[in-house]
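Internal QA ticket QA-208
Title: Verify multi-chain structure generation after dependency bump
Assignee: T.L.

Test input:
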Amino acid sequence: MKYFLILLTLITSCAYGQDTIRPAEPWPDNQGNHIQAHGGGIIKIGKTYYWYGEERRQGLDTTLRYVSCYASKDLVNWNFKGDVLKMSDPDSLGPRWVLERPKVYYNSGTKKYVMYMHIDNRSYKVAQVAVAVSDRPDGPFHYVKRFRPLGHESRDIGQFIDDDGTAYLVFEDRPFGFRIAKLSGDFMDVEKQMSLIPAHMEGGAIVHYNGLYYSIGSALTGWNPNPNKYATALSLEGPWSEFKDIAPPETKTYGSQSTMLLKVVGKKRTTVIFMGDIWKPRTQWDSRYLWMPLEIGDGKLWLPQPKPWTLNLKTGEVAM
Ligand code: DGJ
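Actual output:
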C-alpha cells in the first residue's frame, strides 16, 4: 500500500508538474487553465516570482478591467492567485476603456506593492498611467489615481528595476519617443526623466547586463507583430546606440512583441529571458507567450529561434 501511494504521488506530480517552457504553446497554470497574464511583468519577493498581467479570460464582466497574479518558485509552474485588481471605469473614460500592461513594484520602505498600468479611453487619446496599491503581493490592489507621467503622453509601459533596487518606468510618448524615468522614493510618482530616446517604440523593456543597459522595444503596429529592436548604453541617461534587430526581421520577432526582460542570476551563469506576447486580437484569451533565453553580451543581443527549453534556477543554466 505504501509503495502504491508513493507511486501515485510520483505519477500525479509528473502529470501536473512542468519542467519545460514551451514558447507559443498554451501554458497551463496549477488549475489547468491557460495563463492569463498578457502584457505582463514579473517581480521576485524572497524566493517567489509574481507574474502580473492583463486578465483576458472569457466571460468577464465587460464593464470591469482585471489584472491577474500568478506565483511560482521555478518560473515554469504558476499558481493562480486570482484577479488582484478588479477595476471599474475610474471616472468617465467611457465604454471600451482600456487597461493594459500592468507592472507591480515592491517598495521596501513603505512595504507597499505599487501597480502601474496604461489606462486609456477606447481611442487611446487619454494616454495616461494609473496607479493602484496593495499591502500584499497577491492583492487586493486599490486604484489611487491616473496621470500623464512628467506631463507626457504615455501608452505602453515597461518596468525596470536596477541592481541597486532603483525603480524606473519606461513609457511610449507618441509625439517624442521612448522615455525612461525614475520613480519617486515611495514609487507613487514618476519623478525624473533619465532619457528620451527619439525612436517610436512600444512594448519597452530594459535589462542591466554585465555593466551595459540593453533596451528593447517594438514598432507601432497595433496588435500585429513587427521586428523588435534593441539599443545599448553605459548609463540610463545615454547616449544610446542605434536600434538593431533582435531576430531575423522577416520573422517579426517570431510573431511576438516584447513586454519584459527578466534577469536570472544563477551560481554558474546569468540568463536573460525575453518575455514576449503573441497577441491574438480576436481571441485575446488565447494570446500566447514567447519566452526564450537571449544570447546577450558585449553590446549584442539576439533572440534565438524559439524552441522548448528548461531553466535551472540555481545555476542559471538553460537546456534545449
Ligand atoms: C500595441 C500595444 O503594445 C498593446 O499593448 C496594445 O496597446 C495594442 N497596441 C493595441 O492596438
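Spot checks passed. The mean pLDDT is 95.
Status: verified.
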